[in-house]
Automatic annotation (TrEMBL):
InterPro entries: LysR-type_TF, LysR_HTH_N, LysR_subst-bd, WH-like_DNA-bd_sf, WH_DNA-bd_sf, YidZ_PBP2
SUPFAM superfamilies: Periplasmic binding protein-like II, Winged helix' DNA-binding domain
Domain of life according to the entry: Bacteria
Domain HTH lysR-type: 6-63
Name this protein carries in UniProt: LysR substrate-binding domain-containing protein
Family of the protein in this entry: Belongs to the LysR transcriptional regulatory family.
Keyword annotations from UniProtKB, A to Z: DNA-binding, Transcription, Transcription regulation
C-alpha cells in the first residue's frame, strides 16, 4: 500500500467508527451526514480489504484486523493533533477563555473557590464551566472537549496525563449530641447509624447494595477485615448533602477532612478521628494529551498546583 495515497480523513473516520461502533453516532461525532459516513466506511473497507465493522447480535463489532489497528490509529491522530497545537504565549490578563472542568463536589467546594479567587486577580475575564462526573465521559476528556477532570479515580486510560493535586485523610463528622460521641471507639462507630458517600470516576452510578462490600469502598472493606460491619441508613453521592444529613443526632458520615472545612463554624458539629486505620484519599487532575502543550492549559495547570499547595 502506498501511504501517500491514503486520505487522512479515512483515519479519522476509522478512529471514530471503532470507538462508536455505530455509523450514525460516528457521523454525529464528526458533524457529517450518515450517508457520508457510510461512504467513508465503504472506502475504508476497500483500502484495508477488510469489513472493519460487522453486524452481530450485539450490534456492530470491529473485526480482528480493525481491533489491532485501533491503538495505532488513535496514537497517530493524537500525535498529529498535539504537534499542530498553537505555540503562541498565553496572556492571562487579556484572555476571554472558558476553561471546562469536571470536578466532584468535594473538589469543587475545596479547590475551586481558591482557584476562582486567583483567576479574578490574574485573569479577570477568564471563565470556568464546572461540570459534575455524571456530565462527561473519559471520551470527552480524551477528545479535549473537557479541559481537565479533578476527582479521585480508580482506573484511567493510559493515554491521559495526570497529576496528584493533594492527599487528604478521613474524619468522622456527627452532631455533638450523638450518644456515641462520649465513648468513642470501634464499637461506638459500628453501633451508630451511618451515611455512605462516594463518587468516583465518570458516568451515572447505579443503586448501591449494602451487602456488596467491595463496591461500598475502603471504610467497609476495612471493617470487614476487622470482622465488623456498620449500619448504613443513607446512600448519597454528594459530600455536602451527607454532611448536612449528619447534623441529625443519630447519624455519622466519614468524609475527607478538607470537605469539612466549610462547616467548622457550625456549633453542633463534632469531628472525630476514625477508630481504625484508613488510607488517604488522593485528588487527581487528568487531561488529554491533545491539550498537554497548549499554553493556556499549561498556565491553568500551574495555577491549580499553586492553589493546591497553598
Amino acid at each position: 500500500m502506498n501511504i501517500s495515497k491514503i486520505d487522512l480523513n479515512l483515519l479519522i473516520y476509522l478512529d471514530v467508527l471503532l470507538r462508536e461502533q455505530n455509523v450514525t453516532r460516528a457521523a454525529q461525532q464528526l458533524g457529517i451526514t450518515q450517508p457520508a459516513m457510510s461512504n467513508g466506511l465503504k472506502r475504508l473497507r476497500e483500502l484495508l480489504n477488510d469489513p472493519v465493522l460487522v453486524r452481530t447480535s450485539d450490534g456492530m463489532s470491529p473485526t480482528e484486523k480493525a481491533r489491532k489497528l485501533q491503538p495505532t490509529v488513535r496514537r497517530i491522530l493524537l500525535d498529529l493533533e498535539e504537534a499542530l497545537q498553537p505555540t503562541d504565549p498565553f496572556e492571562a490578563a487579556k484572555s476571554n477563555r472558558v476553561f471546562r472542568i469536571m470536578a466532584s463536589d468535594y473538589a469543587a467546594s475545596t479547590l475551586l473557590p481558591k482557584l476562582l479567587s486567583r483567576l479574578q486577580e490574574l485573569a479577570p475575564n477568564v471563565s470556568l464551566d464546572v461540570m459534575t462526573p455524571s456530565d462527561v465521559t473519559f471520551h470527552d476528556v480524551e477528545e479535549g472537549k473537557i479541559d481537565m477532570a479533578i476527582n479521585r479515580f480508580d482506573d484511567l486510560p493510559l493515554s491521559f496525563h495526570q497529576k496528584v493535586v493533594w492527599s487528604d485523610s478521613f474524619v468522622c463528622l456527627t452532631h455533638k449530641d450523638n450518644p456515641f460521641v462520649g465513648n468513642w471507639d470501634l464499637d461506638a462507630y459500628c453501633k451508630t447509624q451511618h451515611i455512605w458517600v462516594s463518587k468516583t470516576g465518570f458516568g451515572v452510578g447505579l443503586g448501591m447494595d449494602p451487602t456488596d462490600i467491595q463496591k461500598l469502598g475502603w471504610v467497609d472493606e476495612k471493617l470487614e477485615e476487622l470482622g465488623r460491619k456498620r449500619e448504613i441508613r443513607v446512600f448519597t453521592r454528594n459530600y455536602h448533602v451527607a454532611i448536612q444529613l449528619a447534623l441529625a443526632k443519630q447519624l455519622m458520615v466519614t468524609v475527607p477532612r478538607r470537605a469539612t472545612l466549610n462547616y467548622l463554624h457550625e456549633p453542633d458539629i463534632v469531628l472525630l478521628d476514625p477508630p481504625m486505620d484508613l488510607p488517604e484519599i488522593q485528588l487527581d487532575m487528568i487531561w488529554s494529551p491533545l491539550l498537554h502543550h497548549d499554553a493556556s492549559h499549561i498556565w491553568l495547570r500551574r495555577l491549580i498546583n499553586e492553589v493546591a499547595a497553598s
